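Suppose you are handed a protein chain with no further information: no name, no annotation, nothing but its sequence. What can you learn? This example shows the usual starting point.
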Amino acid sequence: MTQPIEDYALIGDLMTSGLVGRDGSIDWLCLPRFDSGACFARLLGDEENGHWRIAPLGAADGERCTRRAYVDGSLVLESYWETETGTVKVIDFMPQRDIAPDVVRIVEGISGTVRMLSTLRLRFDYGHVVPWVRRSDGERVAVAGPDSVWFRSEPPVRTWGEDNSTRSQFPVTAGRRVAFVLTWHPSHHPRPEPTDPFEALDSSLSDWRAWASQCRYDGPYKEVVTRSLITLKALTYAPTGGIVAAATTSLPEEIGGVRNWDYRYCWLRDATLTLGSLLTTGFLDEARAWRQWLLRAVAGAPADLQIMYGIGGERRIPESELPWLSGYASSAPARVGNAAVDQLQLDVYGEVIDALHLARSAGLPAEAHSWRIQLALLDFLEQNWRRPDEGLWEVRGPRRHFVHSKVMAWVAADRAVRTLESDPSLPGEVDRWRAMRDAVHRDVCDKGFDPERGTFTQYYGSRELDAATLLIPRVGFLPPDDPRVTGTVDAVRAELGRSGLVRRYSTADSVDGLPGDEGAFLACSFWLADALHLMGREDEARALFERLLTVCNDVGLLAEEYDPVSGRQLGNFPQAFSHVGLVNTALTLAGMEKRTTEAG
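A reasonable first move is to predict its three-dimensional structure. Written in structure tokens, the prediction is:
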């Protein structure tokens, strides 16, 4: 039975993550990294592709817990089951690891007596490989190729093998706790030291609360802002500081469609928006680590700059399909890797330079080689900004002169000018970058604006619109009260609006080279709220923001898109871009956001 995407909650250890459904089943878990093969892949197939459910004995397939919530200031999930014989709580989390990743599930009796059933189905390589399971000193160890998983309960409970799964059945009474620990390690390594599940719970709560306490935002919507920041932290790969776009692959942008992509990688364009939210809310260590990841990733020849990298900075992310998986709600194919890595997307040059400019302006100590890297990127962009590209939305159709790509080329030149004006001791030709900035500005205004309709278009010569043009006032290309900006905002809202939210663009003309449709894009909807605020339409901006908050699921998480008709979240989940949008719009409405909106 396919659960709605919004029925899932995230757990993680800052190196990987899993999704826990409201039915008590972990249906997605990649070990040991975000981009590793999943050992629970029911999310993209069925129960035979791996999952781990803990629920009251007799709970039907798909039956949900009574209620659930994260413990305040943490990524520790508590799910309550109220039954005829009593109430139990299941606590799910992944402690920040020392060596090996652990998944800990603690069943605690609240009242009465409830018999519980744990069903563990391990399937390595995205649900493809059934491991060999054996007993060892009262525990279970599952091995297949490079993967090994140890499974134990504390105290020990009755456990047996059945239907290629490991089952455990046990009663819990008020005050009794039974813990399960699942630990992964390379099969050729010795078993790591067992984790004490109860100590791990205490330390996990302490670690998360200490981190969340650094947040210096104390304005409206603080609870949802804090939850989004915790989610962004959970999507961070601690060893490098890279932030994955989402925890999943292949969750569809249209149920039954083919718009299914792997988002377990780090996109450069996320850097500017993510850095802004981290810097403004006080998380300087994370902002510094993200900048360091960025500088390592973009090092090298500017012509070789990629739009995305692996969480360790890897460049090769080949795309392939997993034919043994039916796809989420039969939305095939399921994919791993992402062929968009080879696309030309000129906007990323502007986004990288903007991110580094923002870090400098916010007071992060400058890196000696950072400015030299930016000059090299500018040299490349100066020679190439007139080329067509695949654009922000990674279209798989023909290259075009996308307006947003040109605007971000303007941003690159503008930030270089601003940097040199603020620090003339830096090497660089400020007049050269002023000339480039002016040339790009004229080009966009002459070729990317439709004077008959009073709006910027998606690409030169097109009559189609693009929600990315909502960023024009945000980045300072034109002031918010310019008639070309207000005309664009109103046109995008009217033509791309869907039940008050915003689509990225129209899919009717197949600009992206793909069949089918998609939902409203949540980041774009936050951009609309930002644009309305900048234009002085405060009430409309706040109303839209509060509408977007209703899209969050019961534990405050957002996917990439939303279908207002069915009321379902769509796309990979949880989506960093959506949560960055939420944080930045809340900061904008509170007057705290650190952005450049003065026109150049």
